[in-house]
Design goal:
By secondary structure, the chain is α/β, with parallel strands linked by helices. 38% of the residues lie in helices and 22% in strands. Helix 1 runs parallel beside helix 10 and helix 10 runs antiparallel to helix 11. It binds flavin-adenine dinucleotide and nicotinamide-adenine-dinucleotide.
Amino acid sequence: DDQPDPDPSKKTLVILGTGWGAVSLLKKLDTENYNVIVVSPRNYFLFTPLLPSCTTGTIEHRSIMEPIRNFLRHKKAAVKFYEAEATKIDYEKKVVYINDESEIKGEISSTEVPFDMLVVGVGAENATFGIPGVREHGLFLKEVGDAQAIRKRIMDCCETATFKDQKPDEIKRLLHMVVVGGGPTGVEFAGELQDFFNSDLKKWIPDIKDNFHVTLVEALPNVLPMFSKQLIDYTEKTFKEETITIRTKTMVKNVTDKYIEAESTGPDGKKQLERIPYGLLVWATGNALRPVVKDLMSQIPAQKDSRRGLAVNEYLVVKGTENIWAVGDCAVANYAPTAQVASQEGNFLARLFNQMAKTEEIDQELKKLSEAQEKAPNKESRDKVFNEIKELQKRLRRVKRMGPFEYSHQGSLAYIGSEKAVADISWLTGNFATGGTLTYFFWRSAYLSMCFSTRNRILVVMDWIKAKMFGRDVSRE
Ligand code: FAD
Ligand code: NAD
């Protein structure tokens, strides 16, 4: 083992997660100041904005994954990584309990990790609102495995629909692709799926041409609530042209293996319950708390009234604690749960921790100097030390002057299919809203320039070229 033992003179900083928040923190953190330990069930970072493209094979999933070891090996001081899930955080004891949930387990597969400082960046779970049948029959779109499962299911539905002697109603059902949730995840997936059909599936499997259909179901009166009215209209118009059906004011209440039951509200305000048969069901209704976060909240009285996640102060300290911070989707700081917010929070914490270490270093020096001052033999040397102390105190004040976290919104961007995207960009002209093909190229270049390694960038561009030249791969695997 060429990793040194933890240095007893340094504090132990434990970071939970390898997502947007945690990795942004790790990238900027001066790791030599702490004994840094990272715990996550996933040994890679996932570039979620391009995950919808993996469901149809426009992009291969490995192109948007970056091994965490790759980030860590470039750090100045060694960082420990444990591939495990944090199952419980004991706030009083300052210990995290971790469990190896992977297939291969050694003699020891659960243990505890003590911490002086803890950053919780475990993200969120998929919300189902307890609606029966969702977990059993629906597919989510959050992790790599989800995208792979969807890709497989799309092809399975198509091949099963063309099975010998399949009945017309059953063909229709199998080729009905239902997406629940009209947030950006649902919209982007629906767009990608329709693209897949238009540019590849209908050429490769002409038999499905007349029955393949995508429906997007949303409980509210419109999709993409975080975008401006103009862009919502643009999205709805584009979907209509693409022949994607949008069913707004339609709330799913129950899910079985072959149909969903939904309550729709008509223009007259009348409610109606209907059964919608489906072959593929993708469930994208947003975020819910992870159990480990819920449990931590229950240990801290100041978190009693928080519902959506760990309430944090303006320095991202979990309210009611002194040594726990939270970033990203598991934290509530009055911002939307987005990668943009999570990464800015991670960057902020890196700066904060780097500065805290510097402060401590100066404090130590000051202590030494004041001892030296007391022992100084004459006035001349006392004055010399006095001046040094003054200089250091000035530096300390400068270092300590770090302001609270402030989010800077760069805009919202979503792909809506048929090479079109919508963008609300605040830094252009007050509030610049745009949609269309040009925006699509902007969407592509923006994603390419974001938090990505050169390796990932090249892989994604190659995938785009491959899909354009040869079509997407329709093998069911
Ligand atoms: P995550 O990135 O989800 O990371 C959580 C990490 O914690 C993971 O590594 C996970 O394995 C780990 N973990 C989970 N449980 C435990 C545990 N018990 N112990 C330890 N570790 C644990 N946002 C945008 O701003 N722009 C976009 O275009 C965009 N597109 C998206 C597309 C999709 C399909 C999805 C699903 C989300 C998208 N988002 C986008 C939202 C964005 O991905 C999230 O807001 C962001 O990932 C939150 O970062 P995070 O670090 O909090 O959590
Ligand atoms: P979301 O919370 O944004 O949207 C979920 C939608 O599902 C809501 O509109 C809700 O009304 C609807 N819904 C809930 N229950 C329903 C039911 N029973 N029947 C029908 N509809 C129901 O979720 P999301 O799209 O997964 O996004 C999660 C977060 O990730 C958001 O903060 C989002 O901004 C971010 N994200 C951003 C992008 C992007 O910027 N391109 C892409 C994906 C996700």
